[in-house]
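Our platform keeps sequence and structure together, in a single record for each protein. Nothing more is needed to write down the fold, since each code stands for a local backbone conformation. An entry from our holdings is shown next, in its original layout:
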Amino acid sequence: MSTMRVASYNLKDFTLDRHAAARVIRAIDPDVLCLQEVPRRLFSTWRVSDFAQECGMFWSGRHRGSGGTTVFTSLRVQVPESRHYRLRVAALQRTRGYAVLRVGPAGHQPLVVASVHLSLDADERERHAVQILKRVSGGGPVLLAGDLNEGETGKAWRLFASPLRLISASIPTYPAKAPRKVLDVIFASPDLTVLPHREVALSVDDLVAASDHRPTWVDVDLDPQVVPTAETETGPAVSESTVEQAEAAAEDAAGNESAS
């Protein structure tokens, strides 16, 4: 296997038709599924576990504190590491967090994959984006997917787009009934090879019944793992310096907008 499909889907806390959502996911058949708004309250673990099984996927569990973000994987890939993190939010706001794992097919260099769901507050989104970028930096190729709750002019979007690049199709994902906004996206570091977008035949009825968002997905082409040597090791694609450059670029862009 040299191609890995990564998808992202906001599931609205299973408040709609999770069976329709499972049918959508099985049709997409991802190797890695970044999820947002899965049930996160006490005793919700069994619901998420049952849903993963219905999707034909594996779930590591331990998502408490991650604000409803997590990641499912198929048996076609290996997951040497999986973690969930909490993000600090203002009082009375929805809990926020993100999930990070290292994942890849056997014999291939693992990717750092993050599932994110940003705040409805712009300042909070920007602050969280910086924290997430620092967490995923330095571990190899990076792929970041999720619901940003803002478009390409937003500060958090621009922060992600500086060390990373948008690789998902610019197709509106929200609201599911009549999509008008591109909120659900996938970014990747420049060292990843992205294949042309492949459409999947999905039931519109299932898409509308499953969630208020529609999913997005990409296919990445992976090279066989090479043992690093002094000549081949080039360092991380996303580092602390690239994160700092992204922060500076976002501040400059914000300043230019204020002046115009």
In short: The two ends are 50 Å apart (CA to CA).
